[in-house]
Design goal:
The protein has 495 residues and is mostly helical. It has 21 helices and 2 strands. The N terminus is likely disordered.
Length: 495
């Protein structure tokens, strides 16, 4: 027997190139974060996503066939009906269903004691939170890609602003990503009211506009024109919206990062510096570009509000690796720690320049003289965020974010009840509001009843109460900051 066959066995057949390509396409790349891969695999198999995806395709397919069949009589009207239905289903899926799926995503990891295993790996807090968020946003992007062809088919019926409607689709997708970031960010809050019931309540309130806007021709046409940038300053407005959306999403995800990250990690300083930087850029822009008072007031408030709220709700702790970076730099380092050190005491002093920058932006950027009504609204917003922080400041609260949010909700619920009663009794019986002017949101009700309350009389009261609350809160913060140099001074455990 010849030994040639045993000494020189036939080489194994090479794997076909098509099989290698198929293997690569059948799974995620190794370059992706393992957290993202895990969440994507679970999310794409979830019954909720599969049900939404298949339901949208079936319903839109049926609607498209019916519309195409009836397009012979009035093609443009059939096209408008298709656009309304497409945007209705897309808005329902993106603005309600997809964000709701983020409820409890981080809390489940904490509840099942798996978050510690993730932290012990090379995954830091940001990678964990981003993996949860990107997974949901990627599924939303798949819904966007699946629904876009229906609008392209609708284009052939005529009477369509193709660029505007495609831009509006993308804007809805961005809003969905921001809402998802907010819900994922608060999903590790211990309170079930904040992480579960509040998002469900917000989703219930959004059902009405989701139903009405696509089928209201005037509102829908206005949104399409705005998204296309046809209006004056439209491109600038859309660009500012995108920047604001990115900032809000980053800030919202920072809530979850701060809650699950080890306390030796400092995520506060960068967040506060970004907020100050954005307000500084806005002030510089407002110096050269004049706009109505409300425009700059809204932009400045949207930038300042998230940063201040997070600064007020951070647990205060003094650890050597963080505190020494400030205190070792002498007086300037201690001054920087007063504004930028993690914790609510420094957050109180950090809010002072933020509020000052908001006022400066409104004053400098307004095309017309700023009236007392605008200052009353701004003071009401400032007082509304200062008062809950003042109420919980004397106490060593374990869950500051939860307690602050509950107090803030209680203040606004009380204001809503008072407002309903004041509007029902009418003048002059609603003079009792003067006794409740110390509740900052009550000034909003007084401005709505401008026939009974003159702004020039309400403004001094609002300024006095908001200033007094701020001064008292600064006093509590200064007392707590005296412990900054004490090592391992931890006020409350992170959630």
């Amino acid at each position: 027997m010849s030994t040639a066959s045993t000494l020189n066995p036939d080489p194994p057949s090479a794997t076909p190139a098509s099989a290698l390509v198929a293997d690569r396409l059948s799974d995620f790349s190794d370059k992706l974060s393992p957290m993202l891969v895990k969440e994507l695999r679970q999310g794409l198999r979830a019954k909720t996503f599969i049900s939404v995806f298949l339901t949208m395709q079936i319903l839109l397919g049926v609607v498209m066939l019916i519309a195409m069949a009836s397009s012979a009589n009035d093609p443009k009207e059939a096209g408008r009906a298709i656009s309304s239905i497409v945007f209705f289903f897309f808005s329902l899926a993106m603005l309600i269903i997809q964000p709701i799926r983020g409820i409890g995503t981080l809390h489940r990891e904490i509840h099942h004691n798996t978050i510690e295993l993730m932290v012990l790996t090379r995954l830091n807090a940001w990678k964990i939170v981003l993996g949860k968020w990107v997974s949901l946003v990627a599924q939303s992007a798949l819904l966007l890609a699946a629904i876009a062809p229906y609008l392209v088919l609708r284009y052939w019926l005529g009477g369509m602003n193709l660029f505007g409607e495609l831009s509006l689709l993308f804007i809805i997708f961005v809003v969905s990503a921001v809402l998802t970031a907010i819900i994922v960010g608060i999903s590790c809050v211990p309170s079930v009211i904040l992480r579960g019931l509040l998002p469900l309540l917000a989703a219930a309130l959004m059902i009405t506009p989701v139903f009405s806007i696509p089928f209201d021709r005037s509102d829908f046409s206005g949104l399409v024109e705005w998204a296309s940038g046809d209006e004056d300053g439209g491109y600038a407005a859309v660009f500012a919206f995108m920047i604001s959306a990115c900032y809000f999403g980053w800030t919202a995800l920072g809530i979850g990062v701060s809650m699950i990250a080890p306390i030796v990690e400092n995520h506060s300083t960068l967040r506060r510096l970004v907020g100050l930087g954005l307000l500084g850029i806005t002030l510089l822009t407002a110096t050269f570009i004049k706009a109505p008072t409300g425009v700059w007031a809204i932009i400045a408030t949207l930038i300042a509000l998230p940063a201040i709220l997070l600064a007020y709700t951070e647990a205060f702790y003094s650890l050597g690796p963080i505190t020494d970076r400030f205190l070792n730099r002498g007086p300037l380092g201690y001054l920087a720690a007063t504004f930028l050190h993690p914790g609510w005491p420094s957050g109180v002093f950090f809010s002072l320049p933020m509020i000052g920058l908001v006022a400066a932006i409104v004053h400098v950027g307004s095309a017309d003289p700023v009236g007392p009504e605008a200052w009353i609204y701004l003071l009401g917003i400032a007082g509304s965020i200062v008062l809950p922080a003042l109420i919980i400041a004397p106490f060593r609260v374990q869950q500051r974010f939860t307690m602050y949010s509950l107090v803030l909700i209680a203040i606004y619920v009380t204001t809503i009840v008072v407002s309903i009663f004041a509007n029902s009794v009418g003048a002059p019986q609603n003079d009792f509001l003067w006794w409740l002017v110390w509740l900052p949101p009550v000034t909003f009700t007084m401005m709505d009843l401008s026939a009974s309350f003159r702004p020039e009389f309400v403004l001094p009261h609002s300024l006095a109460w908001t200033g007094g609350f701020t001064a008292l809160l600064c006093l509590f913060a200064a007392i707590r900051l005296r412990d900054l140099a004490k090592p391992m001074n931890i006020e409350s455990d992170p959630p």
